[in-house]
Amino acid sequence: MDTLPARSPELPADRFHDREESWLRFNQRVLELAEDPGVPLLERVRFLSIFSSNLDEFFMVRVAGLLRRMATGLVGESASRRQPRQVFARIGEVAHELVLRQARCFHEEICPALAAQGIEILRWEALTGTERSALRKLFTDSIQPVLTPLVVDQAHPFPYISGLSLNLAVVARDPTDGTTRLARVKVPPSLPRFVEAEPGRFALLEDVIAEHLDELFIGMEIIERHAFRVTRNADLDVDEDITEDLLQALERELARRRFGPAVRLEVEESITPQVLEWLVEELDVEPEQVYRLPGPLDLAGLSDVTDLDRPELKYPPFIPDGRALPSDTDVFTTLRERDVLVHHPYDSFARSVQRLVEEAAADPQVMAIKQTLYRTSGDSPIVDALIDAAEAGKQVVVIVEIKARFDERANISWARKLERAGCHVVFGFVDLKTHCKLALIVRREADGTLRRYCHIGTGNYHPKTARLYEDLGLFTADPEIAADVASMFNHLTGFSRPSEYRRLLASPTTLRAGLVDRIAREVEHHRAGRPARIRFKCNAMVDGGVIDALYRASQEGVPIEIWVRGICALRPGLPDLSETIQVRSVLGRFLEHSRIYAFEGGGEPEVWIGSADLMHRNLDRRVETLVQVTDPVGAGYLAALFDRAMDDETTTWRLDSAGHWTRCGHDDVQEHLMRLHGRARVTVEES
């Protein structure tokens, strides 16, 4: 194995950005899109909603894990050397800063801009008398029947507050004897959060409920009412040594998830100290876990507003290009002639990936279909095609990862649907998530021989997110790649452990070493005066081993370009450590999701794509695959993609050694790609 000699035996201890703060800075970039007046107005609203949803998941998983490590004394997997309590304090500082900034954006920028377009989100006091009367009737007819006020006293203990639910804390007084009681009213998630009082004028559901509490607490005086929201630990812990069925173990953990400990309490800033103290004590949270915010809480609910039929306030429609796989011949004929690289959403998912599975299901010469599924939609045409294939008598094998976070229940549901149709469903491994994106089709050719066709992707087989996520996929009938993919499926379904692959890099066996070896080779090429450069595109860069290999390559003078969407623990631009490393981030209309690993190779470039990010979990605790793109057209396309992303004129955020991201440039790479693929709709009228 190649090695990377360092200029000094030890790299500096402070060479990593903290993972958690880096994630928060990613969400700050999302917030900056909401603040950008150049983004269409309802898309700005959408980014505000995404910011809140992202933060919810961050607290449910990352902060929950940090609190658990603080309680148990464990350090965790972060590349940072900071202790959990230090990290927790810093998270609170940055998160408070960001949520207050979000509130300012909502009140000072978004709401006035919406009002100028005839869309108003109003608190109760801003409604007209006519509107209040209409909402009073709505409350009586449609809201009150689904409400359940729960009082807290000696006979009624404090109720369970479900995670992410919006609630009202109510203080009511009995006028006959002056006694007061505390109560909780849950805002029903089954009802619209924004209630239209008049066309274009929306009231908040919690305000409508709050103004009619006297109809729930009849004969009582309502002294106080305050909105609050709880975030709970939602991470799952499936024991690697379980003896019961994996499906049963996961279902048990899902039932337990809703009772996880509280990790965050959000309250409106108007809450009184007495009510806040009551909530803090009953929910067992520390003062630093409390977030006092200008109302309204839960701006993730703004996603409802983005669904308004106002196309002039949204991104212009875009129709994906369907020309990657010619429509005048079947997919298998095309792949016998050449490999095909597709780039979603610019290339149509329906007319490439979905088409491959559907044609395979309908083709009488196809004998077997094998596919991994990590996330997909409940009404997925991919699942329907697999069911059709099984019912037609083909062998269909589906590797379902039921531990895909927050999609566990959905995955269990459609896994059972596949089983009922006759598909062979395998749930992967207890200790490894199956995250690779693979499809393998076995077909009998006209000469009687069997041939295998493959798809290796960077994204999920999910037709809905394929229109929103940027991803890559390679279609090929290359016999060596097909043999590797077949070997991987045998590993996933049978009892084998391949240690080498011909044309794939796979975790947890060969992927980490394969990347580090190629980094070392670039050092040797650079020393010998041959062309050398490293270019990585991923969603997250956290793994300390890979980062250290990149640092040592930079110390030797190798140019390194990193294109990352989210977390980046690497610190670029440090003297004598990372002076040759540039880090860029692209955020925009589509969520950047593909992974690319490119090496100049001394004049013989290698470009790999696949499912793996540079995180400990991806390299050591997941089944991931990378495949080399050898077709000159596809490899050239990916090189040009990097050229544009790293160009100084392209709009990107640039990371400095202190952890600050600065937005620069004016050319949008995603708009360029829509134009390049020739099917962008420039104006709404053209649609």
TrEMBL record:
Binding-site residues, Mg(2+): 375, 405
Residue span, Polyphosphate kinase middle domain: 131-304
Leader sequence segment: none
Xref: InterPro entries: PP_kinase, PP_kinase_C_1, PP_kinase_middle, PP_kinase_middle_dom_sf, PPK_C_dom2, PPK_N_dom, PPK_N_dom_sf
Domain Polyphosphate kinase C-terminal: 330-497, 504-671
PTM notes: An intermediate of this reaction is the autophosphorylated ppk in which a phosphate is covalently linked to a histidine residue through a N-P bond.
Catalytic activity: [phosphate](n) + ATP = [phosphate](n+1) + ADP
Domain of life: Bacteria
Domain Polyphosphate kinase N-terminal, first and last residues per copy: 16-122
Alphabetical GO biological process terms: polyphosphate biosynthetic process
Keywords from the named record: ATP-binding, Kinase, Magnesium, Metal-binding, Nucleotide-binding, Phosphoprotein, Transferase
UniProt function note: Catalyzes the reversible transfer of the terminal phosphate of ATP to form a long-chain polyphosphate (polyP).
Protein name: Polyphosphate kinase
Organism encoding this protein: Actinomadura craniellae
Gene name for this UniProt entry: ppk
